[in-house]
From TrEMBL:
Residues 24-169 form the GAF domain. InterPro entries: GAF, GAF-like_dom_sf. This is GAF domain-containing protein. It comes from Desulfobacula phenolica. SMART domains: GAF.
């Protein structure tokens, strides 16, 4: 029996377009997790930002998961699906039978049966992760996994670009707020 592909080019285009037309990082992330959850017909999706000082993944935005699950505790980058730090996706087909989860009981209570964790990489560095949560066992096809990895490359570029653009606009606005008398040397 062959594994069904869930991701086609049209889905990829819709999600990419919604991300790249977002004015700020928050709306980009919200669009991403909501579209991924709906389009893939899964329980939920989370976008994480890497926190190298704490060696944790900080939840940037999420959709479809309960507040109880989200408050389960800090997500250690060494304990929670740490294999993404090899810059490869991690597929957990059965959350009740894995040693990769930091909080397996919380996943069971939430009704999460499978998780796909994807590293978000920019310029060779892991800057975050995307996790897809399914309430059924998910035997993801090689095609879908490759497409998701290509997609996370776009997420890394979009996150970095949006951060830089927002920083530039803040600097521009600050400079424009300075009265001419303070910046005119004559």
């Amino acid at each position: 029996m062959s594994i069904e592909n869930k991701i086609n080019i049209d889905l990829f285009k819709v999600i990419k377009s919604a991300m790249h037309t977002s004015a700020d990082l928050e709306s980009m992330g919200n669009n991403l997790v909501q579209l991924m959850t709906g389009a893939l017909d899964i329980k939920g999706c989370s976008l994480f930002a890497a926190n190298p000082q704490k060696k944790e993944l900080d939840i940037f935005t999420t959709f479809g998961l309960s507040t109880t699950y989200l408050r389960k505790g800090a997500i250690s980058s060494k304990k929670s699906i740490a294999a993404i730090y090899n810059k490869k996706p991690v597929v957990i087909k059965d959350t009740s039978n894995t040693d990769l989860l930091q909080y397996p009981e919380a996943a069971q209570k939430e009704g999460i049966k499978s998780i796909i964790s994807l590293p978000v990489v920019f310029s060779g560095k892991i800057i975050g992760a995307i996790r897809l949560y399914h309430n059924q066992s998910w035997d993801v096809s090689d095609h879908d996994l490759e497409t998701l990895m290509l997609f996370t490359d776009h997420v890394g570029m979009a996150m970095t670009y949006t951060r830089l653009l927002n920083a530039f606009m803040l600097i521009k606005d600050t400079v424009q707020d300075v009265h001419d008398i303070w910046v005119d040397p004559c």
